[in-house]
C-alpha cells in the first residue's frame, strides 16, 4: 500500500529542527484495558445544543451520545460514537445517518433491555437489530465498541457488528458486512461508495446507482475468498480464512501504535484510507490508502458516472483526494454537491440549421471521457477533429489522441484529467460562452478583434452611444454597488492606481470596502491589535456578516507612497492567490482615493505567538508547542513548494504567527514577501527582515533562497522551546543569556508528556 506516514523530503528542513524535541520522548504510555462503566437499564441521554450528556468509555477515549452535525440546521443531531479526547471529535459510528433528529430527542436503554432512539414526540427513529432478550446493561469499551450484554457479560449486540463507514483496531468484519461512505465531507448520510465482504468471501469496493441501492461493477476487488477482515492492535488490516490463516494484507503497519489513535474509513471519494492520530502533530494523518491507482481512472466499467457525476471530470489533488470539475461552458447541477454532475449553460446546436457559427471548440488538455463514443475517425489532425465535431450537430465533445478522433454525446461518463497525458478533450460550447474561457482558437480571436474594430470605426454615432452608455452604467454601478465583490471581469480601474500585479488579486472573490465602511467597522480605528513599520492593524466588526475582522491600515502614503504602494500591491497579490489552513486569509480591501490603502483579514482571536510565549507566566504545553511548530512548517512548505509562484516570506517571527480560535497557528504579514517563478531557484531582490531572525546571507550581496525562512523558523523553534526571546533590545543580561542557552535541559521535564 502507498504510505504517507514517513515525512516527505520537502519536510526535511523543518523536521530536522524538531530533533531536539523528539529525542526527549523517552517514555511510552502503557495502557491497560479498564473495566467498562456499566450503563444500567432505564438510563437515557437527551439531544441539545448545550448538552454535555454522554456515556464514556473507561479511559474517556470514546463517547456515546448526540453530536450536532456541522453545517446542518440547529436541530440536526446524530446518535454517534466519537473519539472524545481529540479536538476534532471524529465520529466513527452513527445510528441515524439518514435521518438526523432534533433537539429534545432521546436515546434510552429501557427497563426491558431495548436501546431506542426516539424524537421528541416519542416516535422511534432507530433501534439495533437482532438483540434478543436478556439485556442487563450497556457498556462502551475503550476499543470504541458499544455493547448490550446479559447478566453473564455475554455480548448480545455490539456497534462493531453494524459499522457505518469506519472500523477500529480489534474490530472484525464478517461476511455480509459492508462499510458505506458518507455522502460528502460534511454530510453523514449514505454515500455512493461501498466496501463490503460479500457472502461469497470476496472483498470488493464499488459504486452504487445512487440514490438507488443497486451496485455497479467493483472498482477494486481482493479476488480471493475469505471469512473475515481483521484490524488488529498492531495496526495491520488483513483478510483471513475461517481457521485464521492470513490470505491478503490490505494494510501493514511498521510503526509503534502505543500513542496512536487509528481508524480505517471508506471516504466520500471512494478511497479506503488507514488514518492515524499521533499525540503530536494533533491531527489525522493518512498512513496508507487503497486502491493505490488513480481513483479517477478506476471506475470505468461502462456503468455509472465514475468518480464524479455525469458531464464532469475528476482531477486528483494531494493525498489522493479527487476534485470534481465542470468543462468550460458548463456549471454544476448543484453547487453544494459537486458529485451530482454538470449541465450546459448554452442551448444545444440546432440540427435543422447547417450553420456552426454559433459554436466554438474549447480544449481541455490531458482530459478524457473514455467510454461511449458514437463515431470514430482515423488519420486525423487536431484541426480536422475540431471541425468534425463542430460541423456535427450531434457531437458534444471530441477526444483526440494519436491521430484518432472519437465523437461523443451527452451524458459524458467517467471523465478524468491525467497530468502529462497526450490525450485532449475538445468541448463544443456556445460562442457567447467561449470569449471568457481558456484555450480559444487564435483564428477566431483575430476575427473578433477585426470585427470589433470595424464596428467601432464605422460610425461616430456608435462611438458616442457607447461612451454615453458606459458613463451611465458606471454611475449606476457606483450608486448601487458601493460594496461588492471583485470578479475576474472587474476593471482594475476600480483601484485608484494601475498595478498589473492586482490582476491576480481580482481573480479571487475579495470584498471591496469603502473607507467609511471600515472606519465604522473599527469604531473610528480605536482598538489597535498591532503596529508595524508602515501599517497599523485594528480590530473591526462587520455587522452584516456578524464577524470580527482585522483591518490593516497603511500609515505612510505620502512622500514614501511609492514604496508603500508596492508593499500593499505585493501583499494583495500574494495573499489573494494563496489558500491554506495555516495562512491568514485575506477577506477584502479598500483602495479609495489616493491616500487609503487598507486590507481586511479574518480575525485571529488568540493573538500572536509572541504574546503566548513572552507575556504572562503561563507556558503552553509541550503538545501545544509541537502543534504550533508543525502548523508553521506546513505553512512554509506550502509557500515554498506548493504555490504556483514560489514565495519567500523573509520575516518569519512570533509576531507574524497568529493563533485562531482553535489555537491553530497561521502565518501572516506578506508585506515583505519575495516571489519566485517556477523555473527560478533563487532571487537577489532586496529583502528586509527583523533583527534576530534574519539569515546571515541577507547581510551580504548573495543570492537569496527559501532557506532564509528555514533559518528564521529555527530561531522561532528555539524561542518556542525556551519561551524566551532570542535577544533583548536593551542589552544582554549574562544571567538571562545563560538561562536561554541552557534552557534545553528543561526539555527532559515530565511536563513534556502532558
From TrEMBL:
Regions that span the bilayer: 12-30, 450-477
Positions of the Bulb-type lectin domain: 30-161
Membrane-topology descriptor: Single-pass type I membrane protein
EC numbers on record: 2.7.11.1
GO molecular function: ATP binding; protein serine/threonine kinase activity
Location(s) in or outside the cell: Membrane
SMART domains to which the protein is assigned, alphabetical: B_lectin, S_TKc
Pfam family, one: B_lectin
InterPro entries found in the cross-reference section: Bulb-type_lectin_dom, Bulb-type_lectin_dom_sf, G-type_lectin_kinases/EP1-like, Kinase-like_dom_sf, Prot_kinase_dom, Protein_kinase_ATP_BS, Ser/Thr_kinase_AS, SRK-like_kinase
GO cellular component terms given for this protein: membrane
Binding annotation for ATP: 553
Family, as annotated: Belongs to the protein kinase superfamily. Ser/Thr protein kinase family.
UniProt-recorded name of the protein: Receptor-like serine/threonine-protein kinase
Amino acid at each position: 500500500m502507498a504510505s504517507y506516514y514517513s515525512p516527505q523530503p520537502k519536510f526535511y528542513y523543518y523536521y530536522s529542527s524538531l530533533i531536539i524535541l523528539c529525542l526527549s520522548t523517552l517514555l511510552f504510555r502503557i495502557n491497560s484495558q479498564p473495566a467498562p462503566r456499566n450503563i444500567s437499564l432505564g438510563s437515557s441521554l437527551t439531544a441539545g445544543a448545550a448538552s454535555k450528556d454522554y456515556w464514556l468509555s473507561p479511559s474517556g477515549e470514546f463517547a456515546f451520545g448526540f453530536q450536532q452535525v456541522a453545517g446542518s440546521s440547529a436541530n440536526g443531531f446524530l446518535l454517534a460514537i466519537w473519539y472524545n479526547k481529540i479536538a476534532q471529535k471524529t465520529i466513527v459510528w452513527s445510528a441515524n445517518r439518514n435521518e438526523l433528529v432534533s433537539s429534545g430527542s432521546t436515546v434510552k436503554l429501557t427497563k426491558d433491555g431495548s436501546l431506542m432512539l426516539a424524537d421528541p414526540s416519542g416516535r422511534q427513529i432507530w433501534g439495533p437489530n437482532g438483540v434478543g432478550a436478556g439485556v442487563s446493561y450497556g457498556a462502551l469499551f475503550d476499543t470504541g465498541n458499544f455493547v448490550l450484554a446479559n447478566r453473564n457479560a455475554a455480548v448480545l449486540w455490539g456497534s462493531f457488528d453494524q459499522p457505518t463507514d469506519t472500523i477500529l483496531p480489534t474490530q472484525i468484519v464478517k461476511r455480509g458486512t459492508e462499510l458505506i461512505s458518507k455522502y460528502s465531507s460534511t454530510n453523514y448520510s449514505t454515500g455512493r461508495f461501498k466496501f463490503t465482504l460479500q457472502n461469497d468471501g470476496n472483498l470488493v469496493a464499488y459504486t452504487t446507482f445512487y440514490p438507488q441501492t443497486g451496485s455497479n461493477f467493483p472498482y477494486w476487488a481482493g479476488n480471493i475468498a475469505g471469512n473475515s477482515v481483521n484490524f488488529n492492535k498492531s495496526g495491520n488490516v488483513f483478510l483471513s480464512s475461517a481457521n485464521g490463516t492470513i490470505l491478503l494484507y490490505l494494510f501493514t503497519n511498521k510503526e509503534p501504535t502505543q500513542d496512536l489513535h487509528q481508524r480505517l474509513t471508506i471516504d466520500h471519494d471512494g478511497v479506503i484510507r488507514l488514518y492515524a492520530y499521533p499525540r503530536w502533530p494533533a491531527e489525522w494523518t493518512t498512513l496508507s490508502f487503497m486502491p493505490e491507482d488513480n481513483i479517477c481512472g478506476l471506475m470505468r466499467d461502462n456503468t455509472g458516472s465514475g468518480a464524479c457525476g455525469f458531464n464532469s471530470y475528476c482531477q486528483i489533488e494531494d493525498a489522493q483526494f479527487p476534485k470534481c470539475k465542470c468543462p468550460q461552458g458548463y456549471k454544476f447541477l448543484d453547487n453544494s454537491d459537486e458529485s451530482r454532475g454538470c449541465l450546459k449553460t448554452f442551448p444545444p446546436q440546432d440540427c435543422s440549421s447547417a450553420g456552426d457559427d454559433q459554436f466554438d471548440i474549447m480544449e481541455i488538455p490531458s482530459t478524457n471521457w473514455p467510454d461511449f463514443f458514437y463515431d470514430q475517425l482515423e488519420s486525423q489532425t487536431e484541426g480536422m477533429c475540431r471541425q468534425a465535431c463542430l460541423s456535427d450537430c450531434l457531437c458534444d465533445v471530441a477526444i483526440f489522441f494519436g491521430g484518432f478522433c472519437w465523437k461523443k454525446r451527452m451524458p459524458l461518463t467517467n471523465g478524468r484529467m491525467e497530468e502529462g497525458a497526450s490525450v485532449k478533450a475538445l468541448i463544443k460550447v456556445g460562442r457567447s460562452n467561449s470569449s471568457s474561457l481558456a484555450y480559444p482558437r487564435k483564428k477566431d480571436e483575430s476575427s473578433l478583434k477585426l470585427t470589433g474594430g470595424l464596428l467601432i470605426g464605422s460610425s461616430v454615432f456608435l462611438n458616442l452611444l457607447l461612451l454615453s452608455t458606459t458613463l451611465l452604467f458606471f454611475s449606476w454601478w457606483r450608486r448601487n454597488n458601493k460594496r461588492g465583490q471583485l470578479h475576474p471581469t472587474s476593471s482594475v480601474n476600480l483601484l485608484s492606481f494601475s498595478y498589473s500585479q492586482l490582476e491576480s488579486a481580482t481573480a479571487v472573490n475579495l470584498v471591496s470596502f469603502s473607507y467609511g465602511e471600515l472606519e465604522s467597522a473599527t469604531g473610528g480605528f480605536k482598538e489597535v491589535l498591532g503596529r508595524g513599520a508602515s501599517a497599523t492593524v485594528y480590530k473591526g466588526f462587520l455587522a452584516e456578516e456578524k464577524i470580527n475582522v482585522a483591518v490593516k491600515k497603511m500609515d505612510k502614503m505620502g512622500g514614501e507612497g511609492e514604496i508603500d504602494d508596492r508593499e500593499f500591491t505585493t501583499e494583495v497579490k500574494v495573499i489573494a492567490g494563496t489558500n491554506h489552513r495555516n495562512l491568514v486569509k485575506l477577506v477584502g480591501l479598500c483602495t479609495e482615493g489616493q491616500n487609503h490603502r487598507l486590507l481586511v483579514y479574518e480575525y485571529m482571536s488568540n493573538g500572536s505567538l509572541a504574546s503566548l510565549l513572552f507575556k504572562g507566566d503561563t507556558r503552553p504545553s509541550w503538545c501545544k508547542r509541537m502543534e504550533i511548530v508543525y502548523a508553521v512548517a506546513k505553512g512554509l512548505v506550502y509557500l515554498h513548494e506548493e504555490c504556483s509562484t514560489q514565495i519567500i516570506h523573509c520575516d518569519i517571527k512570533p509576531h507574524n504567527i497568529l493563533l485562531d480560535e482553535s489555537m491553530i497557528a497561521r502565518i501572516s504579514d506578506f508585506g515583505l514577501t519575495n516571489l519566485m517563478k517556477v523555473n527560478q531557484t533563487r532571487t537577489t531582490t532586496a529583502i528586509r527582515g527583523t533583527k534576530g531572525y534574519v539569515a546571515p546571507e541577507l547581510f551580504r550581496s548573495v543570492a537569496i533562497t527559501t532557506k532564509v525562512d528555514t533559518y528564521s523558523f529555527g530561531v522561532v523553534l528555539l524561542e518556542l522551546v525556551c519561551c524566551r526571546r532570542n535577544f533583548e533590545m536593551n542589552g544582554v543580561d549574562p544571567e538571562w543569556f545563560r538561562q536561554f542557552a541552557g534552557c534545553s535541559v528543561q526539555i527532559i521535564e515530565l511536563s513534556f508528556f502532558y
